[in-house]
Design a protein that fits this description.
Structural class: alpha+beta
Largest sheet: 5 strands, mixed, barrel
Radius of gyration: 21 Å
Order of helices and strands: HHHHHHEEHEEEHEE
Number of domains: 2
Number of strands: 7
Strand order of the largest sheet: 3-4-5-7-6
Strand content: 15-25%
Number of helices: 8
């Protein structure tokens, strides 16, 4: 059910007894009076994502309970993990949307959301869109047939190649998956990864310039890899999520 279809809420200036979903609804009604349809679509989508995240943490979260850590975890861990279709441009828009949302909340209630959000906003404004673009670049590099999600665009040639590739499996191939940290990016586009769990496996992968330009040391990639028997290099078969180094504290 869409959270914005409920009846308007009473404005309790103290912020007590007002939950995040109520404030999101109130802000949506405010936006309907301020923006055109395209601007409203972008703003509503950004606020809905943040609401979903808050609902995952605590469905009854009061706006007075929200702390700075909530914003850090949303951008560092939840959005890269759950927002797999989000590009770097949409990431910028979401960050700006939340900045306006926090400013509105701080102006309407005796809460300091804008002060809580500002350090996160300033620190991640450049790096978060970059790491979201890493996922998109890997998707293209690995031949994912889906070019774009909104609207849905599928490359038929990529689809045929991707389908054929998934059918070719050598029985003696070695597979690994999990969270890997980028340890080194060599001039010849060789990248050394270290597995975060277990015995700390090191893996060498060869990438091209379209990926190297976005990668940074200590980025964390959730990947599935394959290595042929007697070969030294691994092939990345799937990248599930990409994270900034600061996201490590939220990984179990």
């Amino acid at each position: 059910m869409n959270i914005f279809t409920k009846e308007p809420v009473s404005k309790l200036k103290s912020g007590e007894d007002v939950c995040v979903s109520q404030l999101a609804q109130e802000y949506n009604e405010y936006m309907e009076r301020q923006y055109n349809q395209e601007e409203l679509r972008i703003n509503t989508a950004g606020i809905e994502l943040f609401y979903q995240y808050c609902n995952d943490i605590n469905p009854r979260m009061q706006i007075t309970e929200l702390e700075e850590e909530v914003f850090w975890q949303f951008f560092l861990y939840w959005l890269p993990k759950e927002g797999k279709r989000i590009s770097n441009q949409i990431t910028y828009e979401i960050m700006h949307v939340l900045h306006r949302f926090c400013k509105y909340a701080s102006n309407q209630y005796t809460i300091n959301w804008i002060e809580l959000y500002s350090p996160v906003y300033k620190d991640l404004m450049d790096e978060l869109p970059r790491i979201m673009e890493v996922k998109k670049a890997f998707s293209k590099y690995l031949g994912n047939p889906i070019v774009d999600w909104e609207p849905l665009i599928i490359d038929l040639e990529r689809y045929k190649k991707h389908k054929a590739k998934t059918l070719v499996k050598e029985s003696r191939d070695i597979f690994e998956q999990g969270l890997f940290e980028v340890i080194e990016i060599a001039p010849n586009n060789a990248v050394i990864l270290k597995k975060k769990q277990g015995y700390g496996l090191y893996a060498k992968v060869m990438l091209d310039d379209t990926l190297i330009q976005y990668l940074r040391n200590h980025d964390i990639l959730h990947v599935r890899m394959r290595r042929k028997l007697f070969f030294t290099c691994w092939d990345i078969e799937e990248v599930k999520s990409c994270y900034l180094p600061k996201a490590q504290k939220y990984m179990k």
